[in-house]
């Protein structure tokens, strides 16, 4: 009831909706009296996979696949490469990461530059997962190479931009960059939000073409106040800061990978109350992908030399499975090492992507039961299937703009179509071929 009231109050106070004030007041009363008229709709639980391989010689471009998590047949469950990020493989368009909000997936992309050049076509593609189509993009300045996204609220997101050492602030509804944060970043890549702050990992590496090697500088984690976009602090961390996540409570967890030679990796725990490092776990190897589950257990891939899956208890600050006792294998191939990215599904199962970067089509996503480390399912995905996210699609006519949420924006849009008649109207929630007060009432009930 409170959500409905505040939504109507906003509409009544908005200058552009003054003529509708009496009508909407009546709708508020009707909303309290009319029972829901719409039946239950089918829910889709999807695993969303970014197939990140782009190979000009093989004609392969980056693409998106969807996995129906409740379909028992593993072959039928996968809709492979339903959308492609780019048409010309020669441009080598990279799809870097995946962030999902409601029915919409946001994918940062750019065209790889030639040697010594800058990237082009930098943007964030927006995909409607219910309709399985591109619905727009957010242009990012060329040469920035956007990396990771974090949603601050309904109106704002951050995107890290490695090439220009920046974090861009994006207006979500208007799909444009409104502010660029500079001066505190060095190759920013990972980002996570917790307790009103954003934590950005800065790997601080640069390719030296003359020497033909990578130089590593001082890595940091930059802390941003998400209300003001003001940089609060830079926290020094070990070499090559990489993936950064949080436990949903008070701790940010950073993985560092070292220089892939004589400097090895670390796990760094940061207390968000003080923004100080409270634990440094030195690793005797270069760690692979990580993922944190709801029990604050961090699953991590071991080294190339000793593949296996390790588990670190963030709350207890101790190992559950260390390098001497890894989960050595959980695939259907006894000799298959663990590789690729990790992601936990809402049901608690662990999804392990195993990309084939050679382009021979041996790309799989395997599902592991974390209780007994058993293999539950194996899905064959597209080339370079390496990034996994999850979405629950609940079709609702009240969601007028089809973003996965029923909110004030849907009321505003529907009010603009009041009085329209005919089939297939955008705001005809109850399907009676006319947009009237009953449609607005149904949207109000969905708030």
What key phrases describe this protein's structure?
single chain; about 450 residues; mainly beta; Methylamine Dehydrogenase, Chain H; 2 domains; five-stranded antiparallel sheet; four-stranded antiparallel sheet; 4 helices; 31 strands; about 10% helix; about 40% strand; disordered N terminus
What can you see in these coordinates?
This protein is mainly beta and 447 residues long. The protein folds into 2 domains: 2-40 and 400-446, no CATH class; 44-287 and 389-393, YVTN repeat-like/Quinoprotein amine dehydrogenase (Methylamine Dehydrogenase, Chain H, 7 Propeller). The protein has 4 helices and 31 strands. It has helices spanning 2-13, 21-33, 408-415, 437-446, and strands spanning 44-51, 63-68, 78-84, 93-95, 99-101, 104-111, 120-128, 133-139, 146-151, 156-161, 166-171, 176-181, 191-194, 197-202, 205-208, 213-216, 220-225, 230-236, 241-246, 251-256, 266-271, 276-282, 290-292, 297-301, 309-313, 318-321, 342-344, 350-354, 364-369, 374-380, 385-393. The strands form 8 sheets. Strands 4, 5, 6, 7 and 8 form a 5-stranded antiparallel β-sheet that branches. Strands 3-2-1-31 form a 4-stranded antiparallel β-sheet, with no helix packed on it. Helix 1 packs antiparallel against helix 2 (21-33) and helix 3 packs antiparallel against helix 4 (437-446). Residues 1-17 and 35-40 have low confidence and may be disordered.
């Amino acid at each position: 009831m409170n959500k409905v009231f505040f939504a109507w109050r906003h509409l009544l106070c908005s200058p552009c909706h003054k003529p509708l004030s009496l009508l909407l007041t009546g709708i508020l009363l009707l909303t309290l009296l009319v029972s829901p008229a719409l039946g239950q709709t089918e829910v889709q639980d999807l695993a969303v996979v970014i197939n990140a391989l782009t190979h000009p010689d093989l004609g392969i471009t980056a693409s998106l696949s969807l996995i129906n998590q409740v379909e028992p047949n593993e072959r039928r469950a996968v809709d492979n490469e339903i959308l492609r990020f780019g048409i010309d493989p020669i441009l080598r368009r990279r799809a870097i990461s995946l962030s999902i909000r409601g029915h919409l997936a946001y994918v940062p992309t750019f065209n790889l530059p030639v040697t010594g050049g800058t990237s082009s076509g930098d943007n964030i593609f927006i995909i409607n997962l219910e309709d399985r189509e591109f619905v727009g993009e957010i242009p990012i300045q060329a040469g920035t190479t956007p990396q990771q996204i974090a949603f601050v609220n309904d109106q704002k997101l951050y995107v890290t931009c490695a090439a220009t050492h920046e974090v861009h602030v994006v207006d979500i509804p208007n799909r444009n960059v409104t502010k660029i944060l500079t001066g505190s970043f060095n190759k920013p890549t990972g980002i996570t939000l917790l307790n009103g702050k954003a934590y950005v990992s800065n790997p601080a590496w640069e390719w030296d073409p003359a020497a033909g090697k990578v130089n590593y500088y001082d890595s940091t984690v930059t802390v941003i106040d998400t209300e003001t976009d003001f940089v609060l602090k830079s926290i020094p961390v070990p070499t090559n800061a990489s993936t950064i996540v949080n436990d949903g409570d008070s701790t940010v967890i950073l993985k560092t990978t070292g220089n892939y030679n004589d400097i090895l990796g670390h796990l760094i725990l940061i207390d968000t109350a003080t923004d100080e490092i409270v634990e440094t776990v030195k690793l005797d190897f270069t760690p692979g992908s990580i993922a944190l589950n709801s029990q604050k257990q961090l699953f991590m891939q071991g080294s190339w030399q000793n593949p296996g899956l390790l588990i670190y208890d963030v709350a207890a600050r101790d190992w559950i499975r260390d390098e001497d006792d890894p989960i050595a294998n959980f695939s259907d191939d006894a000799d298959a090492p663990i590789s690729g990215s990790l992601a936990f599904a809402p049901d608690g199962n662990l999804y392990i992507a195993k990309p084939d970067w050679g382009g021979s089509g041996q790309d799989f996503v395997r599902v592991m039961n974390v209780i007994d480390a058993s293999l539950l399912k194996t899905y064959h995905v597209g080339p370079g299937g390496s990034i996994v996210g999850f979405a629950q699609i609940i079709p609702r006519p009240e969601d007028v703009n089809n973003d996965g949420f029923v909110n004030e924006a849907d009321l505003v849009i529907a009010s603009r179509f009041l009085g329209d008649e005919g089939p297939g109207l955008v705001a005809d929630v109850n399907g009676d071929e006319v947009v009237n007060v009953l449609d607005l009432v149904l949207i109000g009930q969905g708030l």
